[in-house]
Structure formats: C-alpha cells, structure tokens
Fold each of these.
Amino acid sequence: MTEYVLIESRDPFESRDTEFVEQTAIAIKERGHRVTVFLLQNGVFAARKTMSRLQRLADAGVIVLADDFSLRERGITAAELAQGVEESGINSLVDTITQPNTKAIWH
Amino acid sequence: MKERTLTLALMDPPYESANSTTAFRIIYAALEQGINVNVFAYEGAVCLALKDQSPHANPVKGTSLDDEEHPTTKAFVSSLLAMGVDKPRLTWVNCGLCVDERGAANAVDGVRRGSPADFFKMAGESTNTLVIPTK
C-alpha cells in the first residue's frame, strides 16, 4: 500500500479544479491506498464547517488536515473547522512526506 | 531511522506567491527534524537567492528602513543555508539557464549553479520529491 499526500493550496472559490483533487483522492482511496489531503494557503478556506464539500472525503476515509499557520493567517479558528477536518502543521506534513513509499503531489 | 532527504523544486519568483513562504517553512521544518534538503530553483525561483535584493523604507507611510524590517528572500535563503551547512545538509542549486535569462548570477553564498540534470539526480537519491509549481 502506498501513501498519497495531496497538498491543496488553492482557494476552492477561485479554482474550480480543486474538485479534481477531491475526485482523485477518493479514486485513489477506492483502490486501497492511504490518502491524506493536506490543505494549506488559500486551500484552508475549504476547511470551514460552513462549506460541506469536504464531507465526501471524510466519508470515503480520506484523512483531511488543515495547516495551522494558514488557518491563523486567515482568521479561521479550530471551532470553525468542518467535521472530519483536523488541524495540523508543517512539521507533520514534512514528516509524512519523507516516509518510504509515500507520494506527495502539490496542487 | 535511516537518513532522510527531501528534494524540492521551486518555480515562483520572490514576492509573488505564498508558495515561496510555504517552501521556506517546509525547508526549515525538515532541517529542524534532521532531514537533508535539496532545492532546485527553476525559472523565477532563481531570484529568491539574488544578492542584489535590498530592503526599503516606505515613503508613502513615512516609515524608515528600520521601521519596515522588510524581509528579503535572500535573507531567508542565507539563514536556511546556515542551518543546513553540515548535518542535516541543505543543498541549493539554481538552474543556470534561468539565471542567465534573468541576469541573476549574483546569488548569496552557498548557492551553486546547475541544470535540470542535477534535479534528476537529486530526486533519484531522495526519500521523496515535492514539486511546487507556479499556478
């Protein structure tokens, strides 16, 4: 089993192709791999509970993490995060993507 | 644990994108964790390390150079290279052709000139490679 880390840096309102990342994450998960979507920069706008689009990722078993630094920069608190989204940090991202058999893809 | 190495390909020029800040954060975090880092700076990213950058005052706001404390990307690169001087090691390679196109040969100490062949070699020898493209 390979671990895939999809790093989403784009604002879902600005970039329609963020949907492609979500579809890809689910498709990889369905093939039996471990998948993490790591939201950072404007990508964390999708993490708010007022948006429901990431629920399908959580439902599919994809791990969804949001960068704490990016959240703070944008005034998003932990209490505002959607169910299934966990606050994380760059240290965790670096540790994960430097493990064997892990693929890291930036979008 | 076996020694780990992360290779990054950067493309954004300085002062344009949050990608540069994130890349610096990733490099810092990796070095802090004892992970070796290779950077291949491509296209506008070769200017991140340009020694000719200088901070500035803000005449519109009437603030001085000291008031502004304007961070330059060359200072970030130098600080990271100082962190990664030995173990863990930070290797920073600027694409030579990109440097020539931009007249950006005057880089801070520790940056060396190379080519995409270096990126290929670094990627092959690393635990993982992350490409951070321009949008």
Amino acid sequence: MSAHIFTTRLKCLLRDRQTIFWTLMFPLILGTFFNLSLSNLNKSETFQPIDIAVINDAGYQQNNDFKSVLENISTGSDQLFNLTAASKQDADKLLNDGKIKGYITVGADIGMTVNDSGLSQNIIKSFLDSYQKTSSVTKSIITQDPSSLQKGLLDDLKSQKEYTLEVSGNSAAPNTVLNYFYSLIAMACLYGGFFGMKEVTDIQANISQRAARVNIAPVHKLKMFLVSMSASLLVHFIELLILLAYLRFGFNVDFGAKTGYVLLTTFVGSVIGISFGAFVSALVPKGEGIKVAIMLAVSMTGSFLAGMMYQDIKYIVAQNVPVLSYLNPVNLLTDAFYSLYYYDTFTRYALNMGILSAFILVFCTVSYLIIRRQKYASI
Amino acid sequence: MPVFKLYMKVIKKNLPSMMIYVVVFLGMAMLFAANSSKSQPKSFSPQKTNVAFISEESSPLIDGFKQELSKNANYVNIPDETEKLQDALFFRNVTLIIRIPNGFTKSFMSGGDVQIQKTVVPNSVSNAYVDISINQYLNAARLYVKNIKGITQEDLVARLKTDLAVDTPVSLQNMQADTENDFTKNYFNYLSYALFSVLILGISVIMLTFNEKDLSRRNFCSPVSASRVNLQFILANLVFTFSCWVIMVGVGIIIGMGNSLNGNLAFFLLNSIIFTLCASSVSFLIGNLLKNRRAISAVCNVVTLGPCFISGVFVPQELLSDTVLKIASFTPTYWYVKANNQIASMTNISTSNLQQIFYYFLIEFGFALAFFAVSLAIGKKKRMSSN
C-alpha cells in the first residue's frame, strides 16, 4: 500500500510543471546568471601590473637613479608597472583614451598626472612617494653622520628588504563570490516549501478536491501524509543534488573538501524547506495566494539577508543584529555551507545545524498538531 | 474606440495589483541605485584600505609605524579571534590583517631579521598598495638603525616622521563625471529591470484576458475590422506603456535627482523611452505567446533577470567577461546600459559623443521594431488558428 501511495504521489508531483519550474529550473537559471555575471568579480580584485607612462625628456634621461629604479620595478615576475616611455603629447593622449592610469613627469621634482582618483593611481603615488622618501632619509643620515657613506650606506640602500610575510589564515581562499552561490542553494532549499505546501493542501479534504478523494481511502491519515511527504522529499532532494552538481561540475563552485557534510547540509535544507511549507500551509487554512505570498516573502527576505542580492548584507546583519542571522533559515543554511568551506573547525557548523534541527522540529510538530484528527462531516 | 475602452477597463480592474508591482519595483530600483552610488571625490584623494592591525606588543616604534601607515589605511577594530578575523576577510570588511609578533621591536632595533605577518586576500590590489608603505617605513628605519649607532626608538620615530613627510605633487587632467550622474545612471540602469517587469506583468495579463477563447471569438464577430482592432489595441498598449514610464521616471526624478537637471538628463530620458518602447514590444510578444496566467511570473522573471545580469545592470559591464558581453549584445538591455554609461561619462556634448549615443539608440529602436513585427506575425497566425 505504501508503495502505491508513494508512486502515485511521485507522479502527481512530477506532473506539476509549475512547482518543478520554481524548485528546479529557476535556481538553475539563476545559478547560470550568477556564474555569467560574477565569474569575473574575483579577477577585478586581483592585482595586475598598472599601465603607466613616463615622459621621456632630458629630465628623465639624466636622473639615472630614478630611471633604473623605475625600470627595475617594471620588469620581472612581480612587476608593479607596465611602463611606456612617451612624449608629453602621446602620454596625454594615452591618458585620455584610458590606456594608462597616469604618467610620471621627472623635472626638478617628480610629479604625476592622472584623470581619476582610484587605487591604481594611489599605488603610483605611493611608489613615487616611497622613492623620494628614501632619498630624503638618505640625505638626513648623511647630514647626521657623513662617514656613513664610507660605511656602506649605499649598499644598505640597494638591499631593500621584504618586511612582510604572508601567512594564510586557513586552507580555503576568501572567495567572495561563493556566498552568492551558497545563498542560492539555501534559497532553492526553502523553495521546497512549495512541495510542503502542496502536501498539506492535498491532505485536507476541505481545501482541495484531491484531498477529498484521498481521504475516502481507508488508509491512516498519518501514514498517507508521511508517505506523501517522503515522495516530496525525494523529488526535492534530487532536484537539489542536480543543482549542486550543476554548480560544482558545471561552474566549478568550490564547496571545500567535506563532501559528505555538504550533502548532509543539503538534505537538512530540503527537510527544512518542505517542513516550512507544510507549517505555513497548515497555519493559513485557506487561500493559496496568501500561502504562496508568505512563502515567497519569507524566502526572498531571507535570501536577501543572507546576502544573495548583495553579499555584504550577510556580514552587516551578523555584526549588528546577530539574533536575526540565527533566526533566518536561509542564512543558517548559507552559513553552514560557508563554515564547511571556510573554517577548519566544526563549531559554527554544528551550531547552524543545531538551530536548523530545532526549526524542523517546531515546524513538524505544529503542522502535525494542526492537521491531525480533522474530520469532515460535510464539505 | 470600443477596443481601446475595453483595454482601459481591464487595466482599471487590475489596477491594485499593478500598482503593487509599480511600487515594489520602484522601491527596489531606488534601493539599488542609492546603494551602488559611491561618492567619487572631485579631487585626488588618498585611498585608504581597511586593515586590521594586531600587535602583540607595544613600543614607540610600533606606534610610529602605525601612525605612518594610517596615511594609507583605515584601522578596523576586530577582536583577535580566528573566526572573526576570517569572517572580516571573507566579506572584505578588511582586506589585510597585519600581526606584529611579540619581540618584534627588540629584534628590529638590534638589527635582527624580523617580519610582520600579514593575512590577505591573495594577489589583491590593496595588498600591493599597503605593502609598499610597510616596506618603505621599515626599510627606512633599518637604514637609521644600521648607520646611526645607539639611536633610540623615540628619536628614530621622530626623524622618520620628518623624513617621510614627502608628498608627490599630483595634477589632474580632467576629472570624470560626478556623483549625481552616478545616481542617475544607476537609477536608469535599474529601471530597465523594474520597468521591464512591470510592463511584462501588466501587458501580458491584459492580453491573456483579451485572448480568452470566448472573449476573442465574441470580438471577432463585431463589425470592426481586424486591423482597426489591432490599431486600437496597440494604441492602448502605448498609452499604458507611456503612463508606466512617466510614473517610474517621474518619481525617480522627484525623489532622487531633483538637483541634477542638466543636459545629460534629457539624453537619459530619451534613452529610457526608446528602451521602454522595446520592452513594450517584448511584452506584447510574450503576451501573444503565453496561454497560462500562472506562467506569467516565471517567464517575467527569466526574461527580465537574465539580460539584467549579463548586460551590466546588477554587475557593472567592466566586470563582465568578453564572452558574456558578446552574448548580452543580443539583448536590447545591453545597448541601453551602454548608452546610459556613455551618457553618464559625457562631460561635454560633442559630435563624436552624440554619434555614439545615437548609434546605440538606433540599435535599441531596431530591437523594438523587430520584436513588434514578430509579435504581429504571431498574433495573426494565432487569430487564424483560433478561427
């Protein structure tokens, strides 16, 4: 009997194209768009040698020190600049066409010309400042102790030391784009609410005709409900797996090495989505429109607060209203994926999963208490 | 004009739900535009990166160093806990974490080999930027320590402070457009999402009503020629489109950009109205194709979100890859955004500027015509089959 209910229910769910679109196709499409538009976002942060020009006049040619320093820093594997030597006229043209970020003039003083005030321009300035600072330090040391020249000040000057040592915080790179994908999966989990909603609608005989038919059958209601629910869970979980696989293998979205836990999180996500839908549907007795509206409002607001539209929001919420980030199931799921990827420890992951389980428990209990033992004398 | 009147009646009936769409999308456009408009300084100003500075010891040298570095860095206070620091780095609250190990000063003053630990977003620009300053300061300090024997920390810091007070003169050639244009540009860019959604939702609801089998059969019985029906319908569509445009652009002008009435705004308006025509004919096409009311929101989401993502509405065009932009150039949104960006960056109205902008307008207009023609053809075919 269970098998019969299960397969019938499965057919029922798969034939509802509307729900399949929102729970499977929509996240896939959105994921594709995310990938198309965000794939370059990390690159924009990456340092690329800055295109600059230097005015190639007598002043520059005579200032050998500066010339060699500038040329030195514009070659090699860790070069800071892409240097072009040009006449003033050409440099102006290059600057106005946006081909270079700025150009350097070497006269009595060293100066620079730019069109804009950004990080690249500031790096050029820092470099020039740095060069001039070094010479001012040298001068001041020589005034203080003229003998320092003989004692190898110039050699010291040449041996510039690297004073920073890069230590990586942990094994995973802080790749901002990932949060968008994690929150997208979390949103898809919550969209499972459409299934949960359907299940409750299709078991209450005063709400849908299908439920009226099903209620006539001599099967215990709880059994009917649980079997139908597991059909929903199966469909939704498979949809989520498709989404995961699509993101992981199609777009190379990194989930870290803890694959088993990622799958577990996805499963819990599916359960919370479906139980959330059931909860809403049971609380709001009539009106499909209102149910859908509540579901969408909660999942969209949740996604927004979890950083799906603008990822800084997640951090802002966590900093200022931490309670909100623990009450938002979308954020909890997003954060669970994030902790799996980014932390070496499991504390935060466990906390997220614990709260999610509590939510599931509440949703299921309340839904059960509402829909149990309803009898219909007449419909 | 019975068809025109009927159209207006249908709108009136659906007015509450349409107003909700308008208000929601208007709110979103406002929010996005306000959020993404960064104020750009009009003069050259030092850029500061957010840095978490953690020192395991304190000494005059470190204080001096910290002060010097503050020329290029904003210090953000973050508790020294691994998880909090990692979070801050991931969400770019800071782009660099500097940690000065215990015993740094002592070892440095005696000429020892020491290093500052930094945790960074790998290969990032801000990393390169702060690196220059750190190395600069400590290398200069090393010169002093090595060459002037027995220099005290206080003396060293004071000397460095005067020595390092060098400022390279920067001249600006011509600064790009200002903040107000930035808001206007963003608002108009987001409008392509908001207005497009409202038009698709509105027009397709109306067309579905008209295309109901019984209703359309009844209408064909009437002694009004098909071309007249069509003409009135299109006219009504244009009126609806234009009202939506007036509301959404009007509110935007009143609320957000009241003080930026310059020549550029006229071009923004022209651009948006051409794009609106285009959106209207796309909506007309969708309305002709759809059969099911419940599919409207699905189609609307895909058709509006898609182009916005790949054409530079949500993510600026400069950050999109060439392939994506090539795909995007098959949508009118791409050209609309391109025109907007061009208009925003226009500091003077010159022939070469205008030529470019009008070229974009022409392409958008071409899209509008093409969609319109296709939907007319499909509409006709549909009429034939339903007869």
